[in-house]
């Protein structure tokens, strides 16, 4: 760790210094974060990658991502957004290939965030939820957009900011390098920087999950960059260090050629525009040809752009030539009238959508959302059950029936009787009843012991609760890690399901075959049928007049197509089952973690009360009794409501 200022060339790059630090945190056994810094006389590239997947898979994935970029860019003479996007796409291909070769690494992946300084220009690139921030004056701005499911839902109005802030899977990724063969890479020029006096921060979620934005701002403003990195990591660890922590702080000196006043302030994160075919941001789709890519347009002022495809130093990329053409100035008034007209149409459409979302239909959000993943999650219906007491209101997910390849059917979505409650929900109610019955017995026992005050018994209870707190904290830590892993697994299945809508399912055979025996078998049958068909086609080419052979080729072609359809159906079923299974596991872990966290809070509260009672605090004793009576009353009320529901079935 340490700040560095280069003096290899008298240029804007000489004014850029940086400090970097990484730490395993307090809850992980291994640091799966990686970082890299590439310095040449033409540019400086700073990178952070946060790996995930398996015991060692995450570290391998993040390390491979950084190494791939270092190998490609170390000797490059120039760098542009499309170059970074292309090489990140290559890194994705390498990680995916590594996971496909070794089943123990299946599904491993990594985020990526990078800042490239080229003289007075800056390129921002990212995939996943590792972040880039800028501090200018007293303002901290997030430059990158989190590629998470909750962020998609928030952008499209499916959830509120309050719901997003407390969502149990708030960092479930919709994009990362490695788990899938395809990845979209955001890479674009910063339009309002860098400027003299700026600070830039790259970090993994191990920092910003526990350290607030205003705290990051204050620590960097009040310290030099070396001290700032150390204090940021220390603060994250003070708050439990639940994940690996990596931070790079970059400082732009006051003698940098560009000033903040030279730029018009831009709103971040930038939204990708779909008006133009392409400019300086690229959506790389890595396929069997890891160098093939597809442009994703991003609005570039009011200019028109013309784009041509070519082969660059990092493989075949498209598009790379960006040309600003002369604007037609004959009809500026008509152009602005057109803009206003389009704006009115958009405004009317949004008002209609907002009105619908405020409507009475709460069972199913049918508004089409921009992101397919957001649409899918928003369309999961909820069944609302209102109880007599407001604090007992509950909502249950209604799961769909899914048939597997062998005809088995999941009935967890089936209704139980005519009440509208599914069997799985009824099982949850029964389990909750058991928990409440145990709670009532425990609280009644506590209350009786307090009525007949016994110091020795309270001391024994205090020791017992202290031991329970240690055990419960360990369980909460374990469940938190399991929940994070389950979230990433679900993200992979959601990404596969999204791909089913835009590509041939057979293209996903290799990655799905790892987790489905049926798909593996269908894949082998399809490959055999393909081989038999192609072999006969080759023979027929030299005997085109052989009618019997032509008939045989036709039959083999039909057999191959039948095998292809069977494989495609098996893949669709496997993806649906994988998604459903992951959702079920996620819901189960979320509920279990919530239960454990509540139990931990109760244990700590009881321990604190007993301490005060043993210290002779009569007011605390009275308060402790009142608190137990209140909790006992709530538990008994909820129990009676649940008993009423189960008896009515």
The main β sheet shows up as: 6 strands, antiparallel
Instruction: Count the E strands.
Output: 18
Q: Span between N and C termini?
A: 64 Å
Which CATH-level-2 architecture of the largest domain? 4-Layer Sandwich
Q: How does the helix and strand content classify structurally?
A: alpha+beta
User: How much beta, percentage-wise?
Assistant: 15-25%
Q: CATH homologous superfamily name of the largest domain? A: PPM-type phosphatase domain
At CATH level 3, the topology of the largest domain is Phosphatase 2c, domain 1
User: Which runs of at least 5 residues are low in confidence (pLDDT < 50)?
Assistant: 4-9, 272-337, 348-419
Query: What is the number of helices?
Result: 15
Going across the biggest sheet, name each strand in turn. 1-2-12-11-8-9
Tell me the helix content: 40-55%
Number of domains: 4
Assembly classification: single chain
Q: Compute the CA-based radius of gyration.
A: 29 Å
Mass-distribution shape: flat
Rounded mean pLDDT score: 75
Identify the CATH class of the largest domain. Answer: Alpha Beta
What can you tell me about this protein's structure?
Strand 3 (33-39) and strand 4 form a beta hairpin. This protein is 48% helix and 15% strand. A 6-stranded antiparallel β-sheet has the order 1-2-12-11-8-9. Strands 3, 4, 5, 6, 7 and 10 form a 6-stranded antiparallel β-sheet that branches. A two-stranded antiparallel ribbon has the order 13-14. It folds into 4 domains: 4-257, Phosphatase 2c, domain 1; 332-379; 380-452 and 617-649, no CATH class; 456-614, Helix Hairpins (Orthogonal Bundle). The chain contains 15 helices and 18 strands. It has 649 residues and is α+β, with helices and mostly antiparallel strands.
